[in-house]
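Objective 1b: paired records.
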Amino acid sequence: MSDKVRVVDILESILEKLDNVNNKMSMIEDQVGAISYDVTKTQERLGAVVRQYQQERERCKTLEATITRNTERIARLCSRLAHAWDRIYRMEANIVKKEEEEEVSLGEMNVNATENHEGTSERDDDVAERIKKEDGVDAEEVKRLLLALLDNGEVAEGSA
């Protein structure tokens, strides 16, 4: 019996060791399950990050296209603004030129008016002489009245 007892002891020892191995295997399976769960969750988070990255990339492309369009639009508006300012400057220069021409023209008109007035004085002398001859009125008095009318547009009171 001793061999039988020994065999039983050996078998019991083997069973204990197998039981320990089985427990360790169960613990390893639990750890593998936990790791598998962590891997699954990590994959889900990674998938969410990848989707978010793709959305952000698409949004960046959209923003880039919008920025490009807006930049082109700003460039067109700047060009139009530059043309408008150029037109304003040219118009302003034309206005200044016309004002200067008008000033010169007014100056010439004043000179012409003065010359015409002087010529009128000479003609007034002729008219005064003719009136004196025809009506017997003093030529100097007529000349003075005509000059007063030309200068003021009215005759001083008491002389008519």
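Objective 1b, second protein:
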Amino acid sequence: MNEGHAERTDGRQAEVGIWDYFYVLYKWRKFIVINVFVITLVAVIVALLLPVQYKATATVVAPRKTDIFGGLGALGQSIREFAPFLRGLSGGQLPLFTYLAILNSRTAMEKVVEKFDLIKVYGIKDSSMEKAVKKLRSNTDFEIDENGILVINVYDRDRQRAADMANYFIDVLNEINIKLNTEEARNNRIVIEKRYLQNLSDLRAAEDTLKKFQQRYGIYYLPEQTKAAIEAAAELEARIIAEEVKLGILQRQFGEDAPEVKTAMIQIEEMKKRLNQMKEGSEKSKNEMSLFVPFKDVPELGLQYLRLYRDYEIQNKLLEFIVPLYEQAKIEEQKNVPVVQVLDYAVPPEKKARPFRTLIVLSVFASALVLFIIISFVNESLLNKKQFLNSLDLKAYNFARKVANIYKIS
């Protein structure tokens, strides 16, 4: 290099100063400038030749929750708890993440490819759907922003087609979402319908049995305390059965180990304990005045009537709950309306979105500059070597010498 690299008499190499680095850069300036210029020029040409793409954007928000059970009082509260499960996927806690999964699905991508004949547009010679889907994925971007809005971005060389594709993704999202919701709602309707039909059968049996008992023994009246206890127990038992229906739906949707399933099981267990206390009485109720008379304290014949009347009341209470639930399940199954709420449809963009030509050129320029500066220092180091340990070192030296000769570096 220069005397900064000269070996001292004690065998140690002289220290390298900052000016030595500037000296190397100055010495190899022609090599650096020419190569960086050529590579940057190529980058400019390539950037100019890259096809322009436009970005069209559509936005979607989560569906608003509507309360259609508000006029049903306490019964409506119970049914409202079922509403998300009856509505299937659209009633879930995170509908936008469901939308993301649908938009990124192969089914959605293939529908867009077929609609806009993208195999031809993208110039895929072997007509491969897989390649077309892969290309389309690279030209789409779906995300949920910080405001909880689903953003659909589509890139294309044609600004009108970009907007049309973004809007068609919304149509596809609606179509697939309706299909999935309908399928889920049908499964829920089948579960509820089975329980509804069983309830009708049980109610008829309870009515017939109670009627026969009344005709045989002539019992048609219960004391108010006993009647109140029966009605309270019947309502609680009807709620237990309803919660068991809900538990069945939860188990099918989320599995046995889901937190929602475990919570529902605990609630059912607690209600069963309370029901047992009402039937058998508790230590607390024995020592205090109670509105409800434990069933076991009723005389034998009255107890038989009580049980029959209780079974009848249970089926009545359950029917009050299950009928509107069943009707709502049928409505949800037959729904065929768009559920996706569009905030903004895409319009043809005015400005190009990519390529980022300036960024491409600057990145290539910076990378080339760093690369050739490093090569210059390596070459200078090779040219200053006095000894070569192997043939590889010698070849590297010869290469550095050849480069120096080409650029007339002495």
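The beta strands are 53-61, 140-144, 150-156, 341-344, 352-354. Residues 53-352 form a domain with the Bacterial polysaccharide co-polymerase-like fold (CATH 3.30.1890.10).
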